[in-house]
Task: structure prediction
Amino acid sequence: MRSGTRFRLGLTHVTAHDSEWTVEAVKQVAYHVIVARDLFEPDNTQLLDGCPDAPIRPGERRLVVIDAGVDRLHGDRIRQWFARNGIRVDILSMRADESVKEWASVETVVDAMNAFGIDRRREPVVAIGGGVLLDVVGLAASLYRRGTPYVRVPTTLVGLVDAGVGVKTGVNYGKGKNRLGTYAPAVATFLDRRFLATVPARHLSNGMAEVLKMALVRSSELFDLLDSYGPALIADRFQGSTPELDNAARLVMAEAIHLMLEELQPNLWETCLERCVDYGHTFSPTLEMEALPTLLHGEAVGIDMALTTVIGHLRGDITPAERDRILSVMRRLDLPIWTEVLARPGLLDSALEDTIRHRDGRQRLPLPVGIGGHRFVDDVTADEIARALRHLAMAAGADTGVPIGAGVAK
Ligand SMILES: NC(=O)c1ccc[n+]([C@@H]2O[C@H](COP(=O)([O-])OP(=O)(O)OC[C@H]3O[C@@H](n4cnc5c(N)ncnc54)[C@H](O)[C@@H]3O)[C@@H](O)[C@H]2O)c1
Result:
């Protein structure tokens, strides 16, 4: 073998040096996020032909994994749609919420894939449910025979604007949120806000937290929309019962998804650890796991954003008026800005330490600058967190009855 020989195959390389070879290969990734309307109305064919990379032809069969809650509410019309279109389906209806976001649920999906005898080249699994169901099925599919395609149909707001549009899958392990996971995009995601008609208001607020996140770090226009229409959109369950609300629902969702994808695309595998989409996700993973099942994911994200808004304010990056406006929008979206878990001594410090471990030894903490901007910092101290917590307790006190100064770690 000649030393330094380099074989070039398109974008891939094999380089040989005596008894050592280096292989470099580039994997192209493409996936589709498609807005749909009334996906399971009898005459709608979007799921059949809406995505060129995941067509379904009459006579074919599919394994459909559906959140049991969604099955109860929408299962009949979903089954009828598949039957009407001549698609034979095996349906696995499984419980999917944060308390069962665990390895055993992945096994349940794998067992169903085995029993179905899936043809991994031609039979993408169809996942219909909230963020938990999508993450569980995505993880199972990405592991099954080292990668089986899947299609997502999110049914919650978190699913529609966040869990359904990125490339991450995962389940919790021990106290670690999403500790086991893969990067595995679905071939296609079909976004149908009709499902939101049955989502409880609390879960819509929960999803609004992820929309608010994008607004706070990327877009004052999106923030203005949330300020003007957020509560009405929740009350209307994004169904567009007036032209004005329909337009607002469409704009809010499109803008949130577009901003999210703009941030994700250049950094799909998260090689760059300074990600503004991590805003609200510094302290929240610990808060969420500590408070289980009290706090929903978006609620924990909301509390993290309230705290980091105050940190931004204390650093002079957020004016008092901006801070008050942000906290007021959070309240109007029915997002908590406080949880008693914050009162556990040292919890936020250890949450930050855990995040530092995930971010390769540095805080890389996105902090808001005004409304719609951000910067990354590495120098947040325990004293600063304690001070911000005191301020937040004061701001929250009126709502929560938390005495001023409670929750201060030191
Ligand atoms: N992979 C990612 O990039 C990503 C991004 C954001 C969030 N997530 C994950 O998503 C999860 C949160 O997702 P979620 O908020 O959708 O929670 P969820 O999946 O637990 O769903 C919330 C509840 O709503 C029910 N439900 C689902 N659709 C419904 C409908 N149409 N009508 C009535 N009830 C319905 C579910 O059964 C569940 O009880 C978290 O585990 C989080 O880690 C993942």
Remarks:
- Residues 243-264 form the longest helix (22 residues).
